[in-house]
Write a structure and sequence with these properties.
Elements: E1 7-10, H1 20-36, E2 39-44, H2 54-67, E3 72-77, H3 82-95, E4 98-101, H4 105-113, H5 128-136, E5 142-145, E6 151-156, E7 160-165, E8 173-175, H6 183-193, E9 198-202, H7 209-219, E10 225-229, E11 232-233, H8 249-254, H9 259-268, H10 282-288, E12 299-300, H11 303-316, H12 319-329, H13 339-349, H14 356-362, H15 375-381, H16 386-400, H17 406-419, H18 424-436, H19 444-451, H20 453-466
Parallel strand pairs: 1-2, 2-3, 9-10, 11-12
Antiparallel strand pairs: 4-5, 5-8, 6-7
The structure holds one RNA strand of 75 nucleotides.
Amino acid sequence: MSHSSVSVRFAPSPTGELHLGGARTALFNWLFAKNQGGQFFLRIEDTDLVRSKDEYTDQILAALKWLGLKWDEPLVYQSKRFDDYKVHITNLLGTGQVYRCFCSKDDLQSARDEGHYQYPGTCRNLTDEGVKQRLNQGIGFTYRIRIPDGETHYEDLIYGPITVNHGEVDDFIVVRSDGSPTYNFTAVIDDHDMNITHVIRGEDHISNTPKQILLYQALGFDVPTFAHLPMILGHDKKRLSKRHGAPGVQSFQDEGYLPESLNNYLALLGWNPGTEEEILSMDELVQKFNLVQVQKKGAVWDEKKLHWVSGQHMMQANTDFILESIRRINPNWGKGSDISYLISIIEMLKQRAKSLTEFIAQSHYFFHAPESYDTAGLKRGWPDKNVNNRVEDIQSVLNEISIWRKENIEKALKVYAAAHELGMGKIIMPIRLAVSGGLTGPNVFEILDHLGKEDTINRIETALNVLPS
RNA sequence: GGCCCGUUCGUCUAGUGGUUAGGACUCCAGGUUUUCAUCCUGGCAACAGGAGUUCGAUUCUCCUACGGGCUACCA
């Protein structure tokens, strides 16, 4: 039934939550698939029974959902495919492309410690008799692939032609002594069984690729196309990790970033649309994405730029969507207020908040009278006792307003300012301080309008009682 | 140790055998905004080094340096 020619997969290992590098790999796979009208699959690489945890799988899936990277069914778990792998081992053993290795872990390790980095080939040419003997003695064994002479060449969609001499490729282990298959082996079989056409993954897999190609050939499978993505780096230019304090994707959600912001920034890390546009919606990313524009060089993670990108998306974001997103990280936000009130607050503030958490912080005074006043703001806006007299005047001016709308408020205060030959700043700063506790925020007349007359008058009253402090 | 990959402003990047090497983030200085954010203007700031090819190299080739990755019975 599948008419699409392109199939890709993201294959995380559930040994930790989804990190930024994984998210970027997932995103690029997804974008490529969508751009090509292909399919995007997910495979959980849980062959490491010791380190894999279900809770990590759950976290990874949740993070991908949040990012909006929907995957096609079925979802593949490698741990459920051990029987499939076994069949291939039997065949490969039959043709001699795989052989049993009876070397112990310790022996191999000590050889490495002495500077012999490659497998010495101890068991490569054991006679049938020799094998039988060892089996009878009950010696544990692994399966290794027999790498033929020659060299392997492939064309990386991002890095170009890559050639490796087989002298550099070890007879690596494909099945451990406990019978479990290793990564390079399972990845090849799964990618084949899942009909993966393009393997898009991190650059750290470049040197695995020849090994896998050799495996494809031994198994008689078609070799897919490979594309390796450059790493995401920390400020020390080393691969980004927890050591850099790099958080999992989940925490970006908690910090109030919109998923499209993270996706947009992640896309810009190692890719560009070929134009000077930087703020792109998911649809635009899908439309413009291609592997040709992907960079070879690793890219340093820059939280500041993410923050800027986030601010751009906040400005453009749909108001209802922002409300929904805020409620997701803070279900109590604006509880008890009319939706229309909340909507108007969002429209006022989304221009100046760069994340949802900033937004929540900046919206506080729309729901609660200030409990304290910004110190630096007081210095400028309410420096001494003289201000109180003026504020009392203003309070009564406001009190006279019968139809409480921002135009009327503005007009009344301007009249007052003109009559007393005062700059508007002298009037607005103390009022802003009184109602919001600080000197930043949207148009002050609009704030008063939203707060309502009673609240405004009360907050000014409170300020008159406690200020200057 | 070996192999593979990479190298343009601090960071993300554009770019061409001849360009004042462009943009974005950050930072700084102005302007607009009665505040803040936005917005506008301006500024700082890069082709790792050395050979070679060439009339001419940031661009092509080689070497060096530096950085990264892999070299596991991890993925």
